[in-house]
Every structure is written in structure tokens, then in C-alpha cells.
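Ticket #4471: structure export looks truncated?
Reporter: QA, pipeline team
Priority: medium

Steps to reproduce: submit the single chain below to the structure queue and open the exported record.
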Amino acid sequence: MKSDHFNYSISWRSKNYRYGNNLSSKIGNDFEYSGSKNFNDHPDLSSIDIKNSITNPYEHIFVKTYNLNNPINLIVLCDISSSIFATKENDSIIKKIAKIIALSAIEHGDLFSMLCYNDDTQNNFYIEPNNNIQFINQWINKLTFVGDRTACEKVENIAKQMPSEKSLVFWISDFHLSHDHINKMLDQLSNHHVIPIYLSTENEIKSLPNYGFRSFIDSELNEEREIFLRPKVKDQLLLDYKESKRKILQMFSRKQLRELEVDSNFNLNDIQKYFMSTII
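Actual output as written to the record:
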């Protein structure tokens, strides 16, 4: 495994057995042998099946065929509401995750796209399915998330911008969202396989000072408010966060989804371990 992408296997990927559907001179991509065909049907000298040709009593010539895996879309669906960027590191974390997913898709012969949303979706926050890693990285680097305070309760336009064919969707969010919103999103994405990437703020809460004023974004009201921290208040913030997280993970579990939790210590192995232990 390279240091800049992860390996994955997708059980629902469709296969194509027909000759000539790819730019290769061979049938399929040599990853999975599927059998032999008559040379007259597929006149490809580079794929001669010597064993079957020699042993055939009618002196027919055969060529080997291979399953051709059709490419799929790997989509980064990114919540860019204000609460996400209350943690400054999330800007770089989101871009790092997106670049890793993009390269991984291209290394596997798949396509990458990315859609960022808050109260609305805009063209400058959307890149169509692509396999040009240089262009993709340049686009990601240019993303600027700072702007007016926004929420992300409007979900009607999301499904319209998603491809109709089944795709692998990495939904990045801190999930400071109402449960109704999360359920609506998952319902709209039910045609796809969704991997929720949970941007954790647990370590940030733990690192807060025991005393002092601190500003917080109220995820319900989308308003900033200031509170005076003391040990009891800090403990309560952590308890509330863990309880909210527990309920959200239960929602994923009911949809038979397994989340990937990341924080500022995120690295490539976190995603690779996920795919090694989860059947997609």
C-alpha cells in the first residue's frame, strides 16, 4: 500500500464481460479470470489460452477472458456549516481526507467527485466526476470555507446533484445536526452506500481550560453564545457531547452504516483499517 492512498473492495461493483469495452487490448483487466472464448469470437492473439487450445479435440483455438470491473463514483459529501469550522483544524482535515479519497479512487480505476453544502449548494463547491488527480488537488486547495454564518438544514437539493447510479459516498460532518435532518439525509442517500465520517470534537472539549470565558456555536439555533467555564460546566459539556454522539451512532447502526471517526490526529491508516474490517 502506498503512503498516500488506501485499498478498498466493493462487493456491489458491477462487472462487464464483453470484449472491447475498455482501452486495453485484452478482454477485461486481468484481475479476475472468467473463462475461455472461441478465437473467432474474440480474435486477440495476446490472450491465447494455450492449454484449452491444445487439448480441444476439435482443434479450436481459445482466448482467455477476464472480468472487467466497471468504474464507480467515490463522492465526498461535505457539510460546511459554521459549526464545522469552530474547530480550526477541520479545514485542513477535510482537504486531507478529500485528497486521499480522490487518489484512492483513481488508483482503483474509479471516479472522484465532491459536493460541499450548507444552507445551499453552489457551483464553486462542486466538482463533477473526474479522474485527473492534478486538477482535483488544485480544486481542493482553492476551496475557501470561511463566510457568513450558515446552518445546513435544507437538504432538498442534495439528492438532485447526486448521480443516479449507486456510488460510494463519504459524508463528512461534525453531525451537530438535528436527528430529523440526519434521517432525511440518509433517506435521500439510500440509493448509495454511505460512510459517515464523524469529525470528532471530544478532544477539543477535553482540552478546554477549567476556568474562563469561551464562545460556542449553538448548533440548534445556529448562534454564537459565550459561557463561563468551570470544572462542572466542562464536565457537563463532555457528557452532553458523548450522549449526543451515542444517539447519532445508534441512528447509523439502525441504517446498517458504520461510521469512521476522525480528529486532528487523523491519518491514512484510520481509513485503511476501516476498509479492512468493514464489508462494502
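Status: closed, not a bug. The export was complete when the record was re-opened. Leaving a note from the reviewer for reference: The chain has a mean pLDDT of 81.
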